[in-house]
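G., the chain you wanted modeled:
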Amino acid sequence: MPTGTGRGHLRHMIGHPFRLFPNPRHGVPGVVVLPEGGWRRARDAITAWPGYAPTPLLPLEDVAGALGLASVHYKDEAARFGLGSFKALGGAHAVSRAVAQELARRGIATNATPTDLESGRYAAATAGITVTCATDGNHGRSVAWGARRFGARCVIFVHPGVTQGRRDAIAAFGAEVREVPGNYDDSVRASEVAARDGGWLLVSDTSWPGYTEVPREVMQGYRLMAEEALDAMPAPPSHVFIQGGVGGVAAAVSVALRARHGSSPRLVVVEPDRAACLLASAEAGALTTVPGELDTVMAGLACGEPSLLAWQELERAAFAFMAIPDSSAIAAMRLLAQREASIRAGESGVAGLAALVLAAHDPAARAGLGLEKESRILLFGTEGATDPDLYDRLVSAQDVDMGPFTPLLEMKNYNMPRTPLK
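Predicted structure as tokens:
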């Protein structure tokens, strides 16, 4: 793959500057991050929850045609358990596991099931259990929902950048929301201290040395989203563009891909250019923290420190890492909102689509990723309009440079199917 100057990554100006870094360790053997036994347990538990149903996989036929690709499919997570994002799969599952294990530790119940917890059978005991985490919005909402379902108290830590709409959505499930100064990573540290000092259960979606088992359960829940998508795909994908953040969902998708299709699908991990900690880690060849305010509109991806577990998977399974500007995410939101299908996708949920459009329009990036007329693309719309007010402001903004998104927006015969694949 051709490279630019500086640190071995591409940088292109086509209305929206972006960076693309090919992973030099792609295909190197590594550790098992998500054991199959844990995955089967998570799958069986979540699919038994009341209201479970696979989310739709939407074929974006004209998008594929306009980009010169065989197919583009979009996994729409907006309706997941009424929470608006894939995070419902991970946080709530980890809460049920953590609460059950705490009951066992206290000698109250050796193997309490999610059904046992929801029934109120152990309500007197679970009322004395507090779960906590930090969030940019969606993970905290899932943990709060899980805590209410399984009978525990909940405290969620946020930083000043978390919108009021997302805080209100968390509080609606009975959680206490506490703001701490700094960025997302600072709120993670605050939740860790509070859990340690208060004897609470920390249900984080990121991991670090000495803290991996609960985040592993979170990621096992995320894997269900990927498995659903692969079940519905008419043929295996050649490329998958997936959001980064701390890397948990990208790693879960990667594990599912490798389990089914080996190393053939090319996984492209996408991050905001102001919070590209995974790309920075790939460049450095080791876990790397991105400092600063992490000020990006893609709030769910505003993470400066990668998850240890996620990095153990992505450092050898990701084909490339890509960092995109906020403007491209807003353009992708508008693209989905203004066409016939009217998909309401949140700013973090469209990062994969934004990256695909940018890469497909750039000859060097297209060649480096191997995007060809036979390519079959899988995208994950990881969130809907989880903050409706912010969503409306972003899609109606008048000063967004649509750049390479303009031809897609102006296609006369755009006919994006509403019917998902089964």
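The mean pLDDT is 92.

Shout if anything looks off.
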